Amino acid sequence: MIKFFRKIRQKMLTENKFGKYLTYAFGEIILVVIGILIALSINNWNTQRLNKNEEQSYLKAIKTDLEKDTLLLGYLIKDIDIQLTKLKKIKDELHSDITTIQQSEEFTNSLLTTFPFIPEKTTIDELKSSGKLNLIENRQVKDTLLLYYNYIDTSIFNLNTSLVEYSRNIIAPFLMTNYTLEYNYPGKLITENSKIVNLNTEQKQNQFLNNAVKYRIAVLSILKIRYEELIIKIIGLQKTFDREIKK
Q1: Backbone φ, ψ for residue 188 (5° rounding)
Q2: Does the chain have fewer CB atoms within 10 Å around its N or its C terminus?
Q3: Are 178 and 108 in contact (CB under 8 A)?
Q4: What is the pLDDT of residues 69-86, one digit of tens each?
Q5: Taking the complete model, does pTM exceed 0.85, yes or no?
Q6: Helix ranges (DSSP H) in the chain
Q7: How far apart are CA 51 and CA 196, in angstroms?
């Protein structure tokens, strides 16, 4: 560029054609500026194209994660239905035939089994850790997705934690204290009532079991509803993702 202006200056001095060469110089500068702007535009377009391709790839991966979540939730809901049926049967028979119930496999399994939902978060965790969450251009899609995972991390997690802690810290110690546990492979954990000291103790045990069964029915019923709500949320997210992927 310096050589170019020196050349112009030399010609102006020798040929005294200031206006002509000044116009030529400005023309050259404008061409250079236009070239730079075109190069920047091409580079920006290419960056946007790459970002869009990466966004589409992530959206498809998240959609696959959500499909896995749907399958897992479906299995959990079926298992909860089975346990609710057993618990309601136990509740109805608890007063009339408690000895038989206590010695059944269903008794302990229904009181101790939990149904935690652990979502597939590989893609969303990668987006967060890599700082690429903003690749999802549609703000509504991004916010809805984050709300979905936040709902799982708070409401669903707390409900499952309550169920696990009640089973581990209250029901399990009660069974260990008041019953003789027998385990037969594969998975049959049965109980035999320990020697009752007096009628009052037996009444307290029966009351505890009755309350425990009712509690389990209540919590599992709520958990089932929450899992069904999650499936509805996933269906909505998948429809939104389908629209974004087709763009």
Answers
A1: -95, 105
A2: N
A3: no
A4: 999 999 999 999 999 998
A5: no
A6: 2-15, 18-93, 98-102, 105-112, 122-130, 139-151, 157-166, 172-178, 199-246
A7: 71
